[in-house]
Amino acid sequence: MAKAEILQRIKSQKVVALIRADSPDSLLECARALLAGGLGIIELTMTTPNAIEVLARVSRELPGITLGLGTVLDAGVAAEGIAAGAKFIVTPCVRPDVIAACKRLDVPILAGALTPTEVVSSTEMGADVIKIFPAEFFGPAYIKSLKGPFPKIEFMPTGGVTPQTVGDFLRAGAFATAAGSSLIAPAALKARDWPQVTARAREFVEAAARA
Questions:
Q1: Domains plus CATH for the chain?
Q2: Distance of CA 132 to the CA centre of its chain
């Protein structure tokens, strides 16, 4: 899948599901539940035990899911994730070596940043999308403020994204959003309450569509 197609999928989906899974089976079932609710873009975090192995298995068994690897802090991990099937890479902060590795491998890189200087620096290094993190402390108004001087830069707020706020973030100019525990409650993941995950995914999808 070409880089442009992956980025377009993320933009069209509007919501990336952030998952910290505890096993391959858990991620597979959670991914199916999200897909049933209309969400097919997943970022598996490196805080997941054996994240690369989990990602590889899910990539093989659920090719319809666009699966990325998040919380990536070094180029070696980025390359491992891509080799295992990651379609995009996400960092929580500015990581020049990770951006460079993704550019070299022609894979979308969503680079974490917060301040205007970090935003510009990451963009100049080659980041495709800037992940504004942690967004919950600034809200949609911060995205709108950043789009003023940086209208051509794409932003993906992470943190504080809920069915009540996702539309505000999108209307403020966000390229897409990312949601973790507000989408997949830790208790639901632990209890394998997949109907709850599906229902919550539908809430996000409907709220994003209204925006």
A1: 3-210 (3.20.20.70)
A2: 11
Q: What is the pLDDT of residues 60-84, one digit of tens each?
A: 999 989 999 999 999 999 999 999 9
> Active-site residues: which are they?
43, 131
Residue 21 has pLDDT above 90, yes or no: no
Length of the chain: 211
Q: Which residues does 137 contact at the CB level (< 8 Å), separation at least 6?
A: 159, 160
pTM: 0.96
